Amino acid sequence: MREQSSGAGGQRRGGGRPYGRGGLGGPRGGHGPRGRRVPPREHPGRSAYGEDRPRAVRTGLAAELRGLEGAQYGRYKGLVGRWEMPGGELLELVRGQSDPYAPPARVALHVPGRLAALPPELWRTATRRRALSSYLARQAAHAVRGEKALRVDAGGQEVLERSSCTVSGEDGSVTLRLGAALPGHGRRIDGREAERLLCQVLPRVVERALRYAALDADEVQHFVETVEDSVALRDALDGLGLVGFVADGAVLPRRSGVDDRPATGSGVVPFASPDALRVTVELPHAGPVTGMGVPEGVNLVVGGGFHGKSTLLRALETGIWDHVPGDGRELVVSRSETVKLRAEDGRRVERVDVHAFVDHLPDGSDTSDFSTQNASGSTSQAASLCEAVEAGARVLLIDEDTAATNLMIRDARMQSLVAKDREPLTPLVDTVRSLHRDHGVSTVLVMGGSGDYLEVADRVVMMDAYRPSDVTARAHEIAAVPTGRHAEAESFPGVVARVPDPSSLDAEVRGRPRIRARGEDVLSFGDHEVDLRAVEQIADPRQVTGIGLTLELMVRRGMLDGQRTLAEALDLLDELLADGATGPLLSIRDEDFAVPRRFETAAAINRVRGLRMLR
């Protein structure tokens, strides 16, 4: 028996510079004879789980590089370690480069707090450190602009927890991690260019981007306060009975599908809340802010095509992340437990209880313990919904454009033509109210073609030329007219908690871990290519890397141990990565990554084609 669960860059101020936008492997433990756990191989200079060991600090890097002029390229590896620089910072060559065509070397710049001189009020909380780190990474990315050999992962419109730049909560010291393609003449070392790059350019990056004296004080303060207001607003939603908030004056449209910056021009309509839904929230820095509160329950967004329905939903979808000043969505937030769902033809499903939506299949399959290698649109969406609730989702977002129609609705005429005992699918319209009433899971649904949802909606918002209005009363009047349709279910029964088999989540290929991101769509994890195209809340390709490292961490640390449910393992993960900790993931591999949420991590686990669930 499985365990039952009820489910439950914008423009800078002050004429400054723009904020900018931006093969993995590593040590891993395994299982020895008779299933005994073998400790993971240690990262150089770290213990098995990343704690720093005392390491000698060397001097004279410039002379060393000049002395390597013309030497075999592989001699660069002898420079791995920490080097004291004339300005007092440390330059660490974390990972060398075997030849000019190999992935770039990994370099870290460690700036002590006394040199960075960042005011303590800028880094006193985890939220402020994340914001400050993001700001500094963007400054560093600008400082290396024009240096093709150097790459700083600064990110885009979202302010994410990244490995590229971290600020210590103990003394305000800064660590910047970046990629460096070490120079060479063919397969010979170009020592003089390496000296310029490491001993002249990187110290200038420290001076221009990582020391407070070089920063625009007002700008960095505004950046940090913008993020802090966003977090405060999101934290306030639960107490206000809301699942989302869209500030008056927010700019929701983006420039294009490949440019996430705010749209500009005379045709852009700033958001303005309907009076009936307008609420005011007091924020630490912005003060009283008004906007549309999206209440708990069943929310419907309707309107004609191209009038802004999906744009509003997309803003709520990305409202789980904080945004840079000037993005237009700085004060558009959703609860952190919000998950976007869609149909996903062809995905694998492993032992998910979908009988609330799919039952009495013609082949007699048990849908209370359902598996398939090639799910249809309807079964994939049903599985994704149950998996999201299992992982702890409290808000579900669904757009009819990307949903399976036959899982969303079955109207009166179709009910008359096809008897229920011949139709295995139970539409969401008949269980969506129970999701909230019995399990505390709210929904926001975009609907342009199915009026049957008017009957079950608690609130209906109409988008007309990007302007919202509350049409709930009129919608309920229309829904009061009988259509002849009858409900096909009385309740959503809840989800079943599953236990993953950790041995089915093995990243090793020929004895080495293989974890590699391909954009935002694919994660190579061991022998498996994990398709993440339908996981729409991944905001950045570096989060895909973060997901791969997180899966490896969960196995390595025994969070996935063959006894804990997936939800219990995710709880342990949240505890380990609380307050913006990147160290545990860096212990797997010092690489550019952004920390994912538990929901994107769970989605990736569920899409590993070799996944086995023990119960």
Automatic annotation (TrEMBL):
Compositionally biased region (Gly residues): 7-30
Protein name per UniProt: ABC-ATPase domain-containing protein
Compositional bias segments (type: Basic and acidic residues): 39-55
Organism: Streptomyces oryzae
Region described as Disordered: spans on this chain: 1-56
PANTHER family per record: ATPASE (PTHR38149)
Residues covered by the ATPase of the ABC class C-terminal domain: 217-490
Domain (ATPase of the ABC class N-terminal) ranges: 61-212
Pfam families: ABC_ATPase, ABC_N, MRB1590_C
Positions of the MRB1590-like C-terminal domain: 514-613
